[in-house]
């Protein structure tokens, strides 16, 4: 089988779970894009694809993730998943100077398991993916950790938002949640996704279950301003504080892009050379005197 996840950190924990249960043996692949942010209009067509590609190129500018970024990898993954579900092999693109890796099952009926945590990143990725797999209903399973209790490392009960928060051994219980995506879901969910694509809002959040709601570009601004506070601070620290305190999380790249936009609008002040990376950037409230711009931790040194 092939396991599909939507966050890099999910891969390692799921692979450890597979080591504990040979019945889960299979390939783990990731859908890379964060479909909870950015334009979605005509996303399955060349026009919409190029619009989203241009948006991501702007967002990723001056980030550690810009080099080697390509949106075609998710398309390739879907192509390989459909090939696998038809009884063929899943082939990874060959790196320069290397042979392509191939995964194929000869003895079992091919199956794809889609794993989701209770967050908008995973659920939007699910919508984007499953809308392209309707022809394989019966062979595509979903496992949604929706408002379910798990045991943490200290033995306490908690309700994880992301798959990577779950201990590998706990996945052995979670696998019992696997069920085929129903024919009804293959009818209803793509319609819900189509509506979201038509709205093409810059931000989407999860309100519960699989209900995704479109939000305005300024949705996370209150979290950013709260993280900046009344003093100047290094960008990395501002982003870290923001992510640790916000209830509905988004990616660090989106937050940094939004900080850049707020600076352009005069709502924040930013100092430093973006071309040298995030570590040299200082963020401060708009209008703070230049003499006050130095972060407190530097002033003390």
TrEMBL record:
Residue ranges constituting the DUF1835 domain according to the UniProt record: 2-143
**Entries under InterPro entries matching the protein:** DUF1835, DUF3658
Q: Which Pfam families match?
A: DUF1835, DUF3658
Q: Where is the DUF3658 domain?
A: 177-274
The name under which this protein is listed is DUF1835 domain-containing protein
């Amino acid at each position: 089988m092939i396991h599909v996840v939507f966050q890099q950190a999910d891969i390692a924990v799921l692979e450890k779970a597979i080591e504990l249960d040979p019945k889960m043996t299979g390939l783990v692949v990731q859908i890379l894009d964060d479909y909870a942010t950015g334009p979605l209009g005509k996303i399955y067509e060349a026009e919409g694809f190029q619009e989203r590609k241009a948006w991501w190129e702007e967002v990723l500018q001056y980030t550690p993730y810009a080099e080697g970024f390509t949106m075609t990898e998710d398309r390739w993954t879907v192509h390989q998943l459909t090939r696998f579900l038809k009884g063929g092999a899943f082939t990874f693109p060959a790196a320069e100077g290397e042979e392509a890796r191939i995964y194929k099952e000869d003895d079992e009926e091919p199956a794809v398991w889609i794993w989701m945590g209770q967050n908008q990143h995973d659920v939007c990725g699910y919508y984007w993916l499953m809308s392209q797999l309707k022809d394989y209903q019966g062979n595509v399973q979903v496992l949604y950790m929706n408002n379910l209790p798990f045991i943490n490392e200290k033995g306490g009960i908690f309700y994880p938002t992301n798959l990577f928060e779950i201990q590998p051994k706990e996945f052995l219980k979670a696998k019992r949640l696997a069920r085929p995506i129903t024919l009804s879901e293959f009818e209803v969910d793509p319609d819900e996704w189509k509506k979201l694509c038509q709205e093409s809002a810059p931000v989407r959040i999860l309100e519960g279950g699989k209900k995704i709601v479109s939000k305005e570009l300024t949705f996370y601004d209150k979290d950013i301003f709260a993280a900046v506070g009344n003093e100047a601070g290094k960008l990395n620290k501002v982003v870290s504080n923001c992510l640790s305190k916000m209830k509905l999380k988004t990616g660090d790249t989106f937050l940094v892009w939004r900080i850049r936009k707020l600076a352009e609008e005069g709502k924040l002040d930013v100092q430093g050379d973006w071309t040298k990376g995030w570590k040299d950037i200082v963020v401060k409230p708009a209008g703070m005197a230049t003499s006050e711009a130095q972060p407190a931790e530097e002033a003390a040194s």
